[in-house]
Amino acid sequence: MEKLNIKNMTATELSLVLREMNEKHHRTRQIMQWLYQKGATSFSSMSNLSIPLRGRLSEMFRITSLDVVRSVASNEDKSQKFLLSTDDGLLIESVIMEAQGHYTICISSQIGCPLGCAFCSTGSGGFERDLRADEILNQILYFRTNHIPAGQRFNIVFMGMGDPFLNIENVSRALAVVNDIDAFALREKRVTVSTAGFPGRIDAISSSPLKFSLAVSVNATTEKIRSELMPGAGGLHETVAAAERFARARKSRTTLEYVLIEDVNDSPEDAARLSAMTAGKPFKINLIPFNEWEGCPFRRPSEKRLEEFIRILLPKAPAVTVRRSQGNDISAACGQLRMRERP
Ligand code: SF4
After folding, report:
1. Atom from ligand 1 closest to the CA of residue 124
2. Single pTM value for the model
3. Is the pLDDT of residue 20 over 50?
4. Confidence of residue 10 (pLDDT cuts 50, 70, 90)
5. What 3-state DSSP class applies to 128?
6. Residue 275 in contact with residue 313, Cβ under 8 Å?
């Protein structure tokens, strides 16, 4: 019999299997704590379980992990990018960033991405497959175990390769473990899921019990530019409307991400339209000056152009921040290290 992949299961699913094994309910909590809080890689190390139970668990389940293939550390800041290998030899890109003692882990939800956004290195590299829940969780575990001091809090952002909403079943399963008090115990303030925008899926997940903050990539103020930059995603206005419904349903704010690209979406008219589109709405706006990559046709706007954009945007738009990508010298934008490693 093929062993079950234990990290591919939520606590509820695990408890059902353990019940069939005639094990008590609290075993689920103990095993979740071993896997996600103590980083156990074998059942033999789970010392508060009886030795016969450890043997039965070893026969029933397998515990997966990811291997490091390559890493690149930035000379400019404390970001570090990793290529992690799956059990079928594919490469996942993940990044850890540290600023003033705050750690953020940027994880992938797919290998490659089928959306093909015009400005994105991952999109230009094609799509291989969805990640399983255990592969999503193992990215977090790798960094928590190897790169974050014990007891230190950290944030997770689903902003690596792929769109989480295209792999919603596995991402939802991983989020259930991320939220779980016996696993990572991370809630809205520490978990952000970023999507290119699929209105129906945003509406569907807004009523789920999963706890996370939503970020939506907007990147345009007209339907024409939106469809040119992000042909695989939902239309501009229907996506922004879904982002607003999510925020109202969750009594929160949705972050709208806006990658500023020279002479594409950085004009004063764009700033005025973005301001009008967001004024008085439950949004935060995150401006991201484009991070150029080898072979891309787009350019980063000048500082002067950026300042002008902000000046027009600021009076009416909700909270505006500018994210200056960390790790420019290691090509920190998603998909770029994997592209270099491919034959
Ligand atoms: S920007 Fe995101 S959704 Fe678009 S191609 Fe890149 S990874 Fe996919």
Report:
1. 5
2. 0.93
3. yes
4. very high
5. strand
6. yes
CA–CA gap between residue 169 and residue 205 (Å, rounded): 11
Distance 113 CA to ligand 1 centre (A): 6
Burial label, 108 (beta-carbon count in 10 A; 0-12, 13-18, 19+): buried
Assigned CATH topology for domain 4-62: DNA polymerase; domain 1 (1.10.150)
Ligand 1 atom with least separation from CA of 162 = 7
Q: Is 106 helix (H, G, I), strand (E, B) or coil?
A: strand
Taking CB atoms and a 6 Å cutoff, what residues make up the pocket around ligand 1?
113, 115-117, 120, 122-123, 161-163, 196, 334
The matching CATH number, chosen from 1.10.540.10, 3.40.190.150, 3.20.20.70, 3.40.50.1000, for 67-341 is: 3.20.20.70
- Ligand 1 atom with the shortest distance to the CA of 116: 5
Give pLDDT tens digits for 230-257: 999 999 999 999 999 999 999 999 999 9
Of 216, 334, 336, 337, the residue with max ligand 1 atoms within 8 A of its CB, to mutate for a pocket test, comes to 334
Q: Which residues pair with 68 in a beta bridge?
A: 84
